[in-house]
Structures are given as C-alpha cells and as structure tokens.
Amino acid sequence: MKQYSKAILYFTKANIIDPENIHNLNKRAIAYYIIQEYDKVLLDLDKIIQLDPLNSSAYYLKSLTYYTKNDINNAKISFKKYAALLNSDNFLAKIQLYYLGYLLNENISKDLSNVLTNINQILNIDSNNELLLLIRCKIHIELNKYYEAIVDLDMLFEGEYKKYYYKAFSYIHLLRKHSDFWSYLCKVREIDKCDFTKLGIINEFSKYMYKEKEVYFISNLTNLDSKLCQFQESDISSLSGLVLCSKNEKLCLDLPTLCNDPAHFFIYKINVKKILSKDCFIKFIYYFRYDNQSEHILKHEDVSKLEGLGWIEYQSLTYKLNGVQISIEINSIEMQIDYVRYGGSSTRKITPMGYLLPNYHQFLSNVPETFKDKYFSRKEMENLLDLNDILSKL
Q1: Rg of the Cα trace of the chain?
Q2: Angle, CA 316 vertex, CA 314 and CA 322 arms, to 5°
Q3: Residue 23 burial by Cβ neighbours in a 10 Å radius (0-12, 13-18, 19+)
Q4: Within a 10 A sphere around the Cβ of 144, how many other Cβ atoms?
Q5: To 5 degrees, how large is the angle CA 106–CA 192–CA 340?
Q6: Which of 238, 217, 215, 218 is closest to 228 using CA atoms?
C-alpha cells in the first residue's frame, strides 16, 4: 500500500495549491478507498459535492463507501442521488449502477428481477462485458436460476478473456459464498465424482477451481496438516477467503503432487507485507518425476521489490511435465499466500473491488506539462510516473 500512500501525498499537495480542483479530490478519495480509510473518503467526497453538487461519480463512490462500511441506509440515500444524476449514455456508469443496485437489494427478489430485466435489454452481452456477466451471474444465483448462472460463469472464462484468468479471479470470489450453486455445478460437471482427499480439497468451490481452473488454494493444506492451522487467517482480498501467513516465523509448505496442464507457468498469489531481515528469502522447490528437481529463490533484493505492493500474482517457473510436487520455504518475511495456479502470465497487481471504482483505469492518468510545473518538482514527477506505471497494470 506504500504506492497509494505516496499518491495521497501528491494529491494532497496539489489540493493545497488548488483546493477547488475536484479532480485531485476525486483521485485522493479513490486512493483512500483502496487503503480502506473510509472516513477520509467521505470527507473528500463531501468537499467535491460542495464544489459540484451535480457530480454523479462522487455520489456513486459515496454510496459504495457507505456500503463497504455496512451503513446501508446512507448507501441507499447516496445511491438514489447517483441514479438521478446518471448519464444514461455512459455504459460503464450503467454497469456500476446495476451492480450497486444489486448490492443494496440482494435479498429482495422483486428488485433483483427488475435489475435482471434491465441488463437483458442490453444487446450482445459477451465475454468482453465481464462486469455485466458477473452481475447477471450473481442475480441468477440469488434467484436460483443455476443453469443460467453457469452459462454466465463459463462466458467469464471463455475466448480471449481466458488469457487473463487473474482478472476473473477478482470477480469470482464474490460468488464463493453460494455453496448450493457450487454443489449444483459440481454435480452437473461430474466434478463430485473425483476424489480430492489426497489434496485436502473438501468444499465444492475449491473442487471447481482446482478441477476446471487449475487453482490450488494453499489453505487446503490445513486439511492435510493440522499444525498449519496456526498460520491460517481470513482475508477478504483472497480468492478462497482463507490464506496462510508466515508472520514472524519460518514457514515451510509441502504441497501434494498436483496434476496440471504441461508447458505453462507456476503462478502464486502472494502478499509480501514486511521484510524482517536482510537474510530473508522465498524458495520454491519443484520435484518432478524421475528424481528431477529445480529451485527458484528470491533473495532480499528480489523480495524488496515486492514488499508493500499488496496482493500480486508472481510467476515463478515454466515447466513441461505433468505431475509436480512443490515445496515453499519462507524465511524472515511476513507474507501471505493464497493460491498457486497454472497458466501464462507475468507478475501482476490484484486490487479487490477496483472494478467498481469510477474511472479506475484513469486513476493516475498522464499529467499535462503545465500541471507538472505547477504542482510537482521534477524528482517528484519521476516518482509519480513510476507509481503510474505500477497502477496502470492494475
């Protein structure tokens, strides 16, 4: 989260120079939201609304913030104002409206049916409309229309989008709690006929993710070794809901032999929170068939580049053999690990709820030359552009 804290400092400095610039306030509010400083988000949004009472995006983020704080009454008040100000020609805004409407009415089937009707009026919804598919899939599940939900779920992973599973994983965790749906899906796909006992996989969501998406949750290991329960903790940003954390101890994880699609990469979702010593390291050991093995080690210089980035997907090693046993050693690092998966990817940042933020892909857009001279020194701008490079990959 260091990068977002830096961004807040820059936007604060810009706000001091130009306190009526709502763009600075809006970007700072988004940064505050990401680091979960929700009261500060609301303060910035109130300032924006004072300066521009018709600013619909401020009401949207205000509603989302109240919802995140579980203040549903205020969330609905802001939502109504946002809906009244919404430009009907803005496609992304309409998607956000539908989803926020779903969040605020997810237990009211009549309202959900109305949202579903509005979504279905949009023509040619395909795998490129992942947000709409997610919303529609969740509503289908809530209305017990499981067959339709499966169709939407499959579309989220099909076509060109299949290359970017990490994006879909930012959404799919929102469906995790619907155990009846996953039981239905595993039965339809005959996943429930597979024996996952040796892998420690016991719930249907984990079975689906491993069998069809080649994702193995590290928390499954607690079902194989109860001693690892002391390292387990919940995390809302994780795909499985539970992660293992090395905390201030050395942690060794021996994964079972995993069956996989040959000739891909090992990709780990990790969160390097704090380096405890310069002697730190992360070691990945791969045991292949016929007594072959390989190691991949991240030492202090490598790990320091990952510290404070939050959740990322880290690509480790390419392989060409089916059936690999992995061991992971973590030393002198406070680090969380969510899953290991297979696929073609590079190291990427993962931000939960980011797809709901207004103009998120423009969070740190290129700054005009006049803006640079007015607000920041050359050195500060170099830092800001480095930060932009990082956030542009979100």
Answers
A1: 22
A2: 125
A3: middle
A4: 11
A5: 75
A6: 218
Q: What is the rounded CA–CA span in Å between residue 181 and residue 156?
A: 16
Residue that is written with structure tokens 């991240």 in the block: 298
> What's the sign of the alpha-carbon dihedral 78, 81, 83, 87?
negative
How far is Cα 152 from Cα 329, in angstroms, rounded to an integer?
A: 39
Helices (H) and strands (E) in the chain, counts: 15, 11
- Which two structure tokens, joined as six digits, stand for 231? 């390292």
pLDDT at 201: 96
Instruction: Give me the residue label for tokens 């805004």.
Output: 93
Judge residue 265's burial from the number of C-beta atoms within 10 Å of its C-beta, 0-12 exposed, 13-18 middle, 19 or more buried: middle
Residues forming a β-bridge with 349: 312
Residues 6+ apart with CB under 8 A from 191: 185, 204, 207, 208, 211, 212
Domains, the chain: 2-179 (1.25.40.10), 202-349 (2.60.120)
Beta-strand relationship, 333-343 and 251-254 = unpaired
DSSP SS3 for 359: coil
What 8-state DSSP symbol labels residue 183? H
> Which ranges constitute the DSSP H helices of the chain?
2-17, 22-34, 38-51, 56-68, 72-85, 91-104, 109-120, 130-142, 146-156, 165-172, 179-188, 204-213, 300-304, 369-375, 378-391
Low-confidence ranges of the chain (pLDDT < 50): 160-161, 351-394
The per-residue pLDDT for 196 is 93
Write the DSSP symbol of residue 148: H
Exposure string (b/e) for 180-199, b if CB count within 10 Å is 16 or more? ebbbbbbeeeebeeeebeeb
Are 338 and 373 in contact by the 8 Å Cβ rule? The answer is no
- What DSSP state is assigned to residue 189? T
Q: How far apart are alpha carbons 23 and 211 in whole angstroms?
A: 45
Amino acid at site 51: L
